[in-house]
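Example 4.3 (complexes with small molecules)
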Amino acid sequence: MSTESQKPDLRSAHVIVVANEKGGTGKSTVSIHTTVGLLKAGYRVATIDLDTRQRTLTRFFENRLSWAEQAGTTLEMPFHHALDRGDSADLGDNETREFTAFANAIEQIEHDYEFVVIDTPASDSYLMRLAHSLADTLISPINDSFIDVDVFSRVHHDRAKRGAIAHYADLVLEARRRRRQVDAGMIDWVLLRNRVAALQSNNAKQIAASIEKLATELQFRTAEGLHDRVIFRELFPIGLTALDAIEEAARGGVLTNSQLAARQEIGELIETLRLPVRGPGESHIAARHDWFERMSRFYRERDRAR
Ligand SMILES: Nc1ncnc2c1ncn2[C@@H]1O[C@H](COP(=O)(O)OP(=O)(O)O)[C@@H](O)[C@H]1O
Ligand SMILES: [Mg+2]
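Answer. The structure with magnesium ion bound is encoded below.
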């Protein structure tokens, strides 16, 4: 099956894929916070959960909806799609089904949303590769551990065995090649250090140095990262994030330092992504400027008439 010829035109929606072929690095956490951050900034966001087993992103938005309903409030929600994995014995058949479901999901959202955030599983699969080849921005969260670095480039005490491009990096480089052939598009690959410890250890410094070295070789950028904070995980059952008004929901009106710090980190992450500003986000700004203009004209005329 030629997936390239059937690939939907995604240029109208900016696709953010959160992926790394390593479990537990924070893919779903980053997908959740990026989505809520963009929604709070006024963008129209769609989400796709490709993790057909864990469905963390799907659960989070189910919890969010249910919390809002029982609290009698409204919360920003993305247009969400959870994909199912093909379960027939015929692999080719599964691919066709998965591709069709994915293309249908994209088709429904591509013209109405400015951003599509795709959360992915940790295993290499057809859907995961498909998502990579559509990515405009690829965020790979990584923890401060050589085990995490090893999926990008082989870590070894023997210099001769060190530095070979490892499986996941290879997958991204391949997706980049494919992407260039199809629409000359670029994948902006951003490595995000996640669960960074409050105190920088020697090990963390060594890891930061090896990531910087790899950045040139594999052509990715690095983001400042998110610290290990309870607030990034404790609100999952009620589908809230540090960006939400949890001070009203749970803390008697007080913003904690940890909430403020988490908000700042998410804001910085979104800034680092340098996402394109367009669509309602931009027209929203234009509408406000227009309103300012009309209001000041009104005041000028009123003052003159006095
Ligand atoms: N910055 C963070 N601070 C605290 N806990 C985190 C942070 N990022 C992720 N976690 C926790 O780490 C675990 C794995 O994160 P998750 O987002 O599910 O990873 P993945 O989707 O890559 O498997 C979860 O228990 C999550 O709540
Ligand atoms: Mg996950």
